[in-house]
Amino acid sequence: MQKSVEKKRRIKASEPLYPSLLRTIQQAFQLKRNPLPWSKAITAGICSGIPVLIGLLANHLSYGMLAGIGSFTYLYVANIPYSQRAKKLFFVMIGLAMAVGMGTLVAPHPLTSAIFVGLIGALVTFLFGAYKIQGPAAIFFVLAFSLATGMPIDPTAAPLRAGLVLCGGALAWLLGMIGWVRDPHGPQTTAMKRVYMELAAFMDRVGSGEVQEGRKKLVAVLKSAEESLAVGQTSWHSSGQYQRLLLLNDQANAIFLDVLEYAEKKRDKLPPHIGKTVRSIAAALDEKSKGSERAIRVEEWPGGEGIILRLQSNVREAVRILIDPQTDVDAVQKRKRQSLWTVLGGSFDKNSIVFLTSIRFGLVLAATALLAYSFELNRSYWVTLSCAAVMSGATIIATFHRAIQRSIGTVVGIMVATIILAAHPHGLFIAVVIMFMTALTELAIVLNYGLAALFITPNALLLAESTGQNLSLSFVASARIIDVVIGCAIGLVGTLLIGRRKASSMLPHLIAKTIRSQQQYLMTLFSEHRANLDLKQSLEQRKMQTNLSNLQIVYTTAIGEIPSNKRQLEYMWPVIFSIEQVGYLLESCLKSARCPILSDATLSQLLLVFETMAKSAEQKAPLAKKEIPAIIDFPQLQRELSELQDALQVSTRVQASEALR
């Protein structure tokens, strides 16, 4: 009885379902205002067309089409450091080849095929989620495996088919890495340019009501740049340019802390010349990467004192690091990346949303494949593929969007494919169509997934029909539409039935867990024993980083749940924001030469503050605020802890009132 009452209370507090669904449907048709990736689109088209052209010249079109599956590797190219990109594309290439080889081997056994497609989907989803890798995740691995199961059954052809896919993947790897020859540190330079542009924009916001919004954006950009620099370093080579970028990143953090301190003490506008100089640094970074130099004029603010003088000094130091060839780049400390086991261990947990999402993805995908096989649908893998595409949405709302977009985009795409196949394409025409459709897919995907599905479908149909058995055009079109609708429906239902409110229920526990990990890191950071510890590689820091990452993912997932308690989640946002800021400030303290050693009395009081906040979040109980002791040279951290207490006090009060409804 009590559980029933609680359930009614939660539903009552949630947003009404039908208005939410109507808004979700409308959002599915919106076009995003993103810049079109022309360079990537053109290269992707070339990458997909070359294997087909080579197959034509060798009088083996089917071989060229198989190698074209390997060209999907290029679709995983992102603006990440080349050392990381090389590894990522290599493993994608190997994964696609293995998927085709495995699909060829198990094609005669439907039950085994269903199990394997579920395992592939779950494994790839987990790895992409754990490493926060951008890209289409599992969808093209599922497509490669599924296409192989639909080819003429011949297990002995597995090595040949996998080898051809590997050749196509190798071409994609080369095209994806070609920018390294011209600018080996291009992605890191772009990240650092963005840091200084956002830093200048934040300076402009000081003294206005937009400080918090600018602060959130800047911290996200600083974290992204730090991660880019960490994963971009190699043990066998470290250039002067890369070392200079590391120093510039440290200097940007120092400038940000000074600006924060100024904003808290003065609440006035900053002298405009400081922001202008910081923008000049960003522009100079861009020109330096192109091989040219730009002079930077550093103006002084007459009558400046205290924090302004220190801020100007740090900006001058950033300029010196950038333009002075005598800068001691060898003195910089290298970034330490999280190990493979640390990353995977942080996500391989019963409370990890990445792990739970991967399990759901694999189970629903395997069940869909079994269902499709049991009904003996022609090319039943289209059902599985549609299900995988729908479930690739990051949240339940995104899954709804994908279902709508996939269904409508595919129906229109099938009409386009019908026109193309009716012309009985052969030879060069097939290669041109594949190149054209691939390029349009890359351009459309940044605008709307439904628009991209319109171009993906003709491409996939050309691959499928050219590597399989020829069937009548009308049968192919009608069968594909039915398969897509069934797959979308199963993916949507599976997402709704399994763990649809899981993220929301995990938030209080994960907030408490993250606060406690910050507490442990703080106690180590400000302790007198820190001199004997490697804090950059400490267990406490790794735990804090892992928990912060998981908290961000869980909160984003909770927002996208249907139904969801929007009011509670809105009041939780200031809590999440402050926790992220505390984490950033703690790591900034480690980099600073002013990092203090606190007394036992101060550390004990801070311990009480953190534990009180953690218990309040965990038990959803009203917070009894505690006095926060002064932290020498880091008043920003003291202020942020105070704001976190305020945010938790309001959030727990709202949760308590919701529970009484």
Low-confidence stretches: 1-15
Per DSSP E runs of 2 or more residues, the count of β-strands stands at: 0
Helix/strand-derived category reads mainly alpha
> What characterizes the major β-sheet?
none
Roughly how much helix do the residues carry, as a percent range?
over 70%
Order of helices and strands: HHHHHHHHHHHHHHHHHHHHHHHHHH
Mean pLDDT: 81
Strand content: under 5%
Envelope shape: globular
Counting DSSP H or I runs of 4 or more residues, the number of helices is 26
Radius of gyration: 27 Å
Q: How far apart lie the N and C ends?
A: 16 Å
Explain the overall architecture:
73% of the residues lie in helices and 0% in strands. It is mainly α and 661 residues long. The chain is globular, with a radius of gyration of 27 Å.
Furnish the topology, listing elements before pairings.
Blueprint: H1 2-13, H2 17-28, H3 38-57, H4 61-70, H5 82-106, H6 110-130, H7 139-150, H8 158-177, H9 179-182, H10 186-205, H11 211-232, H12 240-265, H13 272-289, H14 307-323, H15 340-347, H16 353-374, H17 381-391, H18 396-422, H19 428-445, H20 449-467, H21 473-497, H22 502-525, H23 539-559, H24 566-591, H25 600-619, H26 635-659
Helix pairs in contact: 2-18, 3-4, 3-8, 3-19, 4-8, 5-6, 5-7, 5-8, 6-7, 6-15, 6-16, 7-17, 10-11, 10-12, 10-13, 11-12, 12-14, 13-14, 15-23, 16-17, 16-21, 17-18, 17-21, 18-20, 18-21, 19-20, 22-23, 22-24, 22-25, 23-24, 24-26
